[in-house]
Amino acid sequence: MAIRAKRSFARQLSPLLRAMVLLIIVFVGGTVGYKIIGGPSHSWLDAAYMTTITLTTVGYREAINLESSTVGQVFTMGLLLVGVGSFLYFFSNLTAFMVEGTMDRMFWRRRMTRKLNSIKNHFIVCGGGVTGRHVIEELIATDRGFVLVDRDAECVQALYESTGREFPVVIGDATEVDALEKAGIDRASGIVSCISSDKDNLVVAFLSRERRADLRIVCRCSNDRDRPNIIKAGANALVSPSHIGGLRLVSELVRPSAVSFLDNMLRDREANLRVEEMPITAGSKLDGVTISEFRDRVGVDLLILAVHLPDGTWRYNPDGKQELRAGMRFVFIGDPKARAQAEAAST
Predict the structure, then answer these.
(1) Helix H segments across 142-240?
(2) Which H or E element spans position 329?
(3) Which helix (H) or strand (E) segment is 292 a member of?
(4) What are the boundaries of each domain within the chain?
(5) What distance lies between CA 196 and its chain's CA centroid?
(6) What are the angstrom distances between the C-alpha of 129 and each of 136, 186, 193?
(7) Taking a C-beta distance cutoff of 8 angstroms, is the pair 198, 226 a contact?
(8) Homologous superfamily of the 274-346 domain (CATH)
């Protein structure tokens, strides 16, 4: 798709380039002609000046007198006919180039290239369909950087309009290494593949794991039979839309208030609360700090739900005396600002 987009842009640009080359040829030919007509008594600048006033039909003073030169007059008439036609051809192509949005697309590509080259510690979203749209909306809501990889430029434009954001995007096939490289896979924190085809998700998982052994890879999987293959390909986790949908249905049936609580938390744009997690890494300033001391450092009230210990066990609703140690992860409820402050306190 990326190759076709480049070829399409080249096809749109080529008529303008041809018109520009024709105009240059006419100008150079006119300059050489007037230099021959003017002889050694006139400079190349005089010849170029004559060509310019002839092609633009402005009618200023002639630098080379043509009143007594039949050859000069005939040459000027021919240059006018060819030159005016060349100008019309050039400006009609220039107008078409601008009106059709080609320039806008060119500037957009340059803008995207700058964003893609500068982004890091981001997430890559492969596929901007129905599932991908929800992924993107959540990343935007929680103020996380990401890059979308999708084949369909119209789908990307629809996402721009629905989200009101112009986020970084690669128009290309996520099952090709080139597209993943453009999306900055070497600098990314994780990748989510939510393409409708399980086979495509498997390829994305394989290419991503081959490129990065430490990358967090999450894939959509519609068919349970494909789960082992996608895991073997390198995915850390799989999400089945039908499985999640079934769990949601039964939750609505047996625990409606709990579901309503989570829905309100996710949809409240003012509070913008989320269930977040944060690792305690080696060398972290939080290593050896109690939860109470951590809350004092962050300066905001975080609701810490659980601590994931290095041995894989969970400690739910920990008290303020619980020490945080390297290798632990704690889960809390907070908004993007609280998450950013917690991450800042750790470094």
Answers:
(1) 153-163, 177-182, 198-211, 227-233
(2) strand 329-334
(3) helix 291-298
(4) 2-100, 106-239, 274-346
(5) 21
(6) 10, 24, 11
(7) yes
(8) Regulator of K+ conductance, C-terminal domain (3.30.70.1450)
Q: What is the pTM of this model?
A: 0.66
The class of domain 106-239 in CATH terms is alpha beta
Going 53 to 54 to 58 to 61, the CA torsion angle's sign is positive
Phi, psi of 61, deg, nearest 5: -60, 135
String of b and e for 270-291 (b: at least 16 CB within 10 Å)? eebbbebebebeeebebbebbb
Q: Are 229 and 237 spatial neighbours (Cβ–Cβ below 8 Å)?
A: no
Cα-Cα-Cα-Cα torsion 306, 309, 314, 318, nearest 10 degrees, comes to -40
Q: What is the DSSP letter of 184?
A: T
Per-residue pLDDT of the chain (347 residues; tens, 9 = 90+): 343 444 455 566 677 788 888 888 888 988 898 888 888 888 898 888 888 888 877 767 777 777 677 887 888 888 888 887 787 777 777 776 665 555 566 677 788 888 899 999 999 999 999 999 999 999 999 999 999 999 998 899 899 999 988 899 999 999 999 999 999 999 999 999 999 999 999 999 999 999 999 999 999 999 999 999 999 999 999 999 998 999 989 999 999 998 898 888 888 878 888 899 999 988 899 999 999 888 888 876 678 999 999 998 999 999 889 999 999 998 999 888 888 888 888 87
181 closest CA partner among 157, 147, 153: 147
Smallest Cα–Cα separation from 245: which of 130, 125, 127, 129? Answer: 130
C-alpha distances (whole Å) from 333 to each of 177, 254, 328, 330 are: 37, 24, 17, 10
Q: What are the C-alpha distances in Å from 288 to residues 284, 320, 324?
A: 9, 13, 5
Catalogue the long-range contacts made by 38-45 (C-beta closer than 8 Å, 24 or more residues apart): 38/63, 38/64
Strands 314-316 and 303-308, by their bridges, are antiparallel
Q: Residue 207: left if φ>0, alpha if ψ -120 to 50, beta else—which one?
A: alpha
Fold classification of 2-100 is Helix Hairpins (1.10.287)
Q: Which amino acid is at 63?
A: A
